[in-house]
From TrEMBL:
<keyword id="KW-0193">Cuticle</keyword>
<protein>
    <submittedName>
        <fullName>Larval cuticle protein 65Ag1-like</fullName>
    </submittedName>
</protein>
<dbReference type="Pfam" id="PF00379">
    <property type="entry name" value="Chitin_bind_4"/>
</dbReference>
<dbReference type="InterPro" id="IPR031311">
    <property type="entry name" value="CHIT_BIND_RR_consensus"/>
</dbReference>
<feature type="signal peptide">
    <location>
        <begin position="1"/>
        <end position="16"/>
    </location>
</feature>
<keyword id="KW-0732">Signal</keyword>
<dbReference type="GO" id="GO:0008010">
    <property type="term" value="F:structural constituent of chitin-based larval cuticle"/>
</dbReference>
<dbReference type="InterPro" id="IPR050468">
    <property type="entry name" value="Cuticle_Struct_Prot"/>
</dbReference>
<dbReference type="InterPro" id="IPR000618">
    <property type="entry name" value="Insect_cuticle"/>
</dbReference>
<dbReference type="GO" id="GO:0062129">
    <property type="term" value="C:chitin-based extracellular matrix"/>
</dbReference>
Amino acid sequence: MKFIIVFAALFAVALAAPPSNQGEVQIVRSDSNVGPESFEYGYETSDGVSASAEGHLNNAGTENEALAVRGSYTWVDPEGQSHTLTYIADENGFQPQGADIPVAPAA
């Protein structure tokens, strides 16, 4: 049950991107495969937005049960530049990576 709730939340966040002002956006590709202990999905739209993720349940049925997800999200800003964020979300938390994420200076 936790798996379905987490998957639904991640999917809703991915689809919550602000709409483009370039007119009607078409879905170019949409794939999904959801199983009892794993999932994967991907989509692309005509305005350059795309996302994909895959996840699986680690330690199923134990008190250390945890969902591990790996994915990416790409969008185009108003100036036409493409941006991509990749991430891992697991027992160590959400770990995003991308050229647009500020990096703290070395201590």
